[in-house]
Specification:
The protein has about 110 residues and is mostly loops. It has one domain: Pectate Lyase C-like (3 Solenoid), CATH 2.160.20.80.
């Protein structure tokens, strides 16, 4: 599945995208509210400005992903791999990050998580 197919399926009402392979996908500004992307591989994907409110990204691979200014309000990121991701300006209000790998991640305030 590529990013265009993902968006088309989402717009058609589908929400189940677990284990999708979307490495380096260009999804800047995408609306994926309540999408299930658990265990998806989104390494180095551009999700800047995307709306992922209440999406499920449990155990997803987001290493090196750009999530700058993304809406992650209420998003489930249990055990997600976010090493080196950019979360600058992202809305993490109510996000569930238990067990997430945040090593080297740039946080919303611009600080780098150790």
């Amino acid at each position: 599945m590529d990013e265009q197919e993902l968006i088309e399926k989402y717009n058609a009402g589908e929400r189940e995208f677990s284990k999708a392979y979307l490495v380096r996908a260009k999804l800047s500004g995408a609306i994926l509210v309540e999408a299930n992307l658990s265990e998806a591989n989104l390494n180095e994907a551009d999700l800047s400005g995307a709306n992922l409110r209440r999406a499920c990204l449990d155990l997803a691979y987001l290493n090196g992903a750009n999530l700058a200014d993304a809406n992650l309000e209420g998003t489930f990121l249990y055990g997600a791999y976010l090493s080196g991701a950019n979360l600058t300006g992202a809305n993490l209000e109510g996000a569930h990050l238990y067990g997430a790998d945040l090593g080297g991640t740039t946080m919303p305030d611009g600080t780098v998580h150790e």
